[in-house]
Design goal:
3% helix; mainly beta; 44 strands; extended; 59% strand; 3 helices
Amino acid sequence: VKNAYLSIGRVPVFWVPAFFVPGVRMVGNPAMGFSSDRGMFLNTTFEIYGTYPNFKKSETSSFTSLLAGEPDTSYVPSGPVYRPREGEMTPFEKWTTDSGSYLVLLADSYEHSGISIGLVAHTSLVSEKVVIDTDMRIAAHPEGKDTLTSSLDFPKVRMFGSNEVLVDTSWADLSMTMPFYSDPSVRRLYGNRLTAFSFDSLFGKRQEFPSDYRSDVNSYTWKANGTFNFPTKPFGNFIKVAKISTLNASIDWRWGIDTTSSLYSYRLQKLTLPELQATISGELFSWSRPIGQTEKPETVQNDQVGEKAPMDAFFLDATLDEAYVPTLATKTKTLSAGAKQSITLGYSVDEKLIYSVDDLEESATTWDTNRKFYTSTTPTLSLGVVVHPTFFTFNQKLSSPFITSEDRTKTTYLTRQFQLTSATNATIPLIGLTYTLEEKLYTFRDSQSISAPYESQEGYFKFTKEYVTKHQLRLAKSFRVGEGTLSPSITATLYPLTQSLLPSLGYAIGPWTLASSLKFIDREGNLTAQLFSSSVKFSIPVLTLSLLGTYDLENLGSDRWSPLTLSGSGTLLLFEKQLSFKESFSFEASSDLYGNNYFKDITSTISVPYVTSTLIYAGPSDALRAETLNTQVALQDLSYSWWKRRIVLKLGLDAKLSISFIDVYATSLSLTAKAGFSIAEFLDFSFSLTSSNRGFYHYYEGPDFSFPLMWEDLLRSFDLFGDGRNATQFNMNSISIELIHYMEDWSLNCKYTGSVVLLDNQYKWVPVVSVFLQWKTIPELKVDEKWTESSDGWAQVTSS
């Protein structure tokens, strides 16, 4: 640049006939200066190959930006600087650019914290299918100790690092992470560093270090996770699936004292090696042939045909059998395309394995005393026969799970169990008839205890309840009746189980769905009506109503009302779903615990944009009382502007309030609030706060809640400079207040930040106040004050 000059406003103060501004990057990217907590410092970052992505160009620095190049430009080393590339790349340089691979050496020096060196590498291989990340640091601290007798001590030679390997292929996904630390605070001290060329603090600029790592590391985990889906195409149908769905291993480390040596270190706490779930399956024999002339099936214009009646909104009781829900089936006139006769003999083997050792940091713990071992192997053989897809299908399955459980921390430390089970299913689709039989053919169980002799049990199949787990016959078919679908069904539970009969009937037309069932159960050879259930549902886009009732016929007495239970729900959506009302209830006419006419819950929910509130009542019908009120407010970056958008107000709030009317100790509040106000070229103000409160019981005067006490406590929480915040139930996790006043040549910056940080194994509130006056012409020239709070009160850190 020729005839270069520097001016303040319109007044030139410095001139040179020529000045070279190359737009290059300095080798080593040195960042030097002075920091109140680190003293004089020098951070250097050397690229061995590739481009380090963590170089950050200063957005407010006028001095250092003179030597900064364009971020998308490719550079090559040339003496003490990196210059823009000219000419073609070598094959190695092309690989590093295309894959994003790089190798970086770090060398730092701190007046108060010694020196540190490190290596950061990212290597991407095989089209990014294999990625290796390495980050290692080693440092020498002048105040380190030879023996760590306190949790706050640290060694003379400190180190930390993280190594990660990722493998992503068509048949395998694998990740391994192995961090390590010499002490809890090492990463917070040496991990937060400057990477871009900077000497701004030499000119009085307040040097702010990154805060990527704010807390101590009291525990960490080595872990490996993998999934494998092996290729099976060469094996045809003999192996159709071969996969390891879960393969995990982990080692947990925790900072603590060794009871033997009384020294602190990271100690092995728990080991899990491995946790495995694997499956292999295929077909040993398969035969099929097409049958009949295929035609397209008749199209039935009903979304519910072929589906179960939508009963989930009825709040079905967990004790009700699924057979209560009628099935709406498809009505067809001809076979679907591709109908076949077939015989298939298949197999599968499922394996689950977990091996772990807990509490390894205890001196009395050994690999044998705390070992936990679990394995489950389940081979299965299945036979499927389709004689005719309309007239008869048959399925038979044999399984033999073998389970071993060993826990050396228990008195009975070893149990083993083996079963041979059978499941038979036969259907006649034409009439909707299904027969199901499931039983245990053979069982074996043994156990070993510390204080008891060896025990074993063995059993062979008998046609009794002990061995037969399901024996059922079901007839279900759906028919078109006018514009609706009628779905009758009958389900019988057969001997040797408790015999029962469940006829049911469902009908669906338009927005209406109705269903009823009556369960009969065998009592001394006679079928006795046990339970009647009925449900109705109405659904249109803006309104959904449902009601389910059950009537216990076994407990009929003089009071015919007592056996009744009801549950229902309703939803109303208005103004394009901007406003919604939801109501649900659960009612018992007679409750063993609470008496007659008891509502388990009556829940009312109202939702409008940004706010949802739910009120829950419960109790007898003549003495209902509120139990909880839950309110959630979610405002995301609401913005309002005036005066040609030169005045802007921004608001954000995420708050959850849970009020318990039964237990005052259960009431809680959590919120995150943000606000911003700006006047273009004059003022910027921003505020953010994260807080929680679990002490609402302090605001009661006798049985009554006192809002004045809550507001007084809330005001105390904003006493940032006094002792009020230490005597409030509103616990702030973090707060930030920033004000910038823009003047013609200067800007006044005022900022307060505070947060809860884990330091020296304790959670502490760390507040910082900074005020500085910045000259717009050369932003590095500032007059600033920075204050922080210590045990002796507020103290000035430094000024310039």
